[in-house]
């Protein structure tokens, strides 16, 4: 169990650098002058050195003549449905710009071009192979802890504590990190390695309402199914199944391989989790699929420190690190299919009152910048008023390239919630290989999610339509609505919890 003392001393201990580079699975460091971390490998191209953990998948990017121009890190999926893995090669055709080349790929990856006229780094469509960069030291890396300390790269200790990391579900907004002088590379941007400046590339979305829900669902299903098939061609997979839309939609798209998947549900405390387990088990039983309920195990100080060391205290994700001990009971060789990107298909940060000509201000974004559901945790008020956060949000709005409020809110959701949060914690959850990959991560999928009519975003029906088109039998169970059976079964526990809380309140 995580002790009270850990809460008081966690941040200073972590920032003191406890841990070994050997534990930083999938991670990398790019610079012209690299001190190779202990146990890592390195590759050199032109004047650049790419240091990487042995578990990182590295693919060569070559030109039409076979000359190497850069690397792909991670697990890219080609338009032909081929998953590329370490030691592979891919061609950058003459005349194709790096951004267009990257936009045609799915999967979880980072593209690094160094042997070109304009050296640059490009994230995947959602920034799920997260990276950071330090202009002063002209170094890029996976996490801030890999960047050396000097007078310009000190810790933002006060901001870390204001955000409540790791005890809250928080994130550093659109480009900030836990260190001064170190910035996160966001989706829709690339990093110019000559000027060490992050430049916006898009997004190139049409207005909402320009794509019908049926058309969008058809295209999303096609690409997601292709990506799942490519992953399963190389790795056995887990699909964490809940009563929600995202995981069920992934299962629908994986219909032809469903018997090869292993479905599981983490047994978190609470009514919603109990319903997840019940509905997932019911679906699996009815459809003759393999499913198991994974009991929670209490995470201890070591679990928490290791989880946060791997991501340099870059996000708060209590459910993630609390599940560390439970995840150790899973097969280390199975890859996990994540559904987080499905959140884009719903309202995200919009409200029913928002219109294209609404005015989006830092005040509107600041709570979303710190948390997902718009309610600050106790102690986070100081972070909401932080000058550095306010300045970052003003800069983001100024350089967004649009005044359309709906596009701004969608861009902010993708770049803040996905690129600055969901893209970070997979580094912490690598199990050897057991990495996390998001089958919906593709530029066209994101575009289709954004371009459906406003009412579809409001009611969250797009992914339901994908499921209807691909495996309609999965619609027989309600979404995220606890059944009568679950409510009755969970009632004694809920009563005990309320009585316990009431007793603790009286003692105070």
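^ Assign residues to that structure.
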């Amino acid at each position: 169990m995580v002790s009270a003392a850990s809460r008081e001393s966690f941040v200073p201990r972590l920032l003191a650098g406890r841990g070994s580079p050997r534990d930083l699975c999938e991670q990398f460091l790019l610079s012209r002058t690299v001190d190779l971390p202990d146990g890592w490998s390195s590759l050199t191209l032109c004047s650049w050195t790419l240091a990487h953990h042995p578990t990182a998948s590295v693919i060569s990017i070559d030109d039409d003549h076979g000359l190497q121009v850069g690397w792909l890190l991670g697990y890219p999926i080609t338009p032909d449905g081929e998953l590329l893995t370490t030691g592979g090669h891919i061609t950058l055709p003459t005349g194709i710009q790096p951004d267009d080349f990257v936009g045609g790929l799915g999967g979880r990856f980072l593209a690094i071009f160094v042997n070109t006229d304009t050296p640059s780094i490009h994230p995947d469509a959602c920034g799920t192979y997260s990276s950071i960069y330090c202009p002063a030291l002209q170094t890029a890396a996976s996490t801030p802890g890999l960047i050396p300390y000097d007078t310009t790269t000190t810790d933002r200790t006060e901001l870390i504590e204001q955000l409540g990391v790791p005890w809250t579900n928080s994130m550093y907004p659109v480009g900030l990190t836990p260190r001064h002088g170190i910035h996160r590379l966001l989706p829709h941007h690339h990093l110019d390695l000559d000027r060490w400046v992050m430049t916006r590339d898009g997004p190139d979305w049409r207005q909402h309402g320009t794509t019908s829900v049926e058309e969008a669902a058809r295209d999303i299903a096609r690409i997601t199914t292709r990506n799942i098939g490519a992953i399963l061609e190389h790795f056995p997979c887990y699909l964490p199944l809940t009563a929600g839309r995202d995981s069920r939609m992934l299962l629908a798209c994986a219909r032809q391989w469903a018997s090869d998947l292993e479905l599981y549900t983490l047994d978190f405390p609470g009514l919603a989790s109990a319903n997840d387990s019940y509905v997932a088990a019911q679906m699996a039983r009815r459809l003759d699929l393999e499913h198991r309920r994974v009991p929670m195990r209490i995470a201890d100080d070591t679990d928490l420190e290791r989880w946060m060391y791997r991501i340099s205290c870059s996000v708060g994700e209590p459910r993630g690190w609390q599940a560390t001990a439970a995840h150790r009971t899973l097969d280390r060789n199975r890859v996990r299919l994540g559904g987080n990107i499905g959140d884009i298909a719903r309202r995200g940060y919009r409200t029913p009152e928002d219109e294209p000509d609404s005015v989006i201000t830092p005040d509107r974004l600041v709570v979303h910048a710190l948390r997902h559901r718009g309610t600050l945790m106790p102690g986070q008020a100081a972070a909401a008023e932080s000058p550095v956060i306010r300045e970052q949000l003003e800069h983001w709005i100024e350089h967004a390239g649009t005044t359309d409020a709906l596009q701004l809110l969608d861009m902010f959701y993708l770049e803040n919630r996905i690129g600055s949060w969901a893209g970070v914690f997979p580094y912490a959850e690598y199990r050897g290989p057991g990495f996390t990959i998001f089958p919906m991560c593709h530029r066209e999928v994101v575009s289709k999610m954004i371009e459906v009519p406003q009412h579809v975003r409001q009611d969250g029906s797009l992914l339901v339509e994908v499921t209807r088109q691909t495996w309609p039998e999965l619609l027989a169970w309600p979404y995220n609505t606890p059944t009568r059976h679950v409510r009755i079964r969970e009632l004694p526990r809920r009563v005990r919890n309320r009585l316990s809380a009431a007793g603790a309140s009286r003692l105070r």
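The chain has 17 helices and 18 strands.
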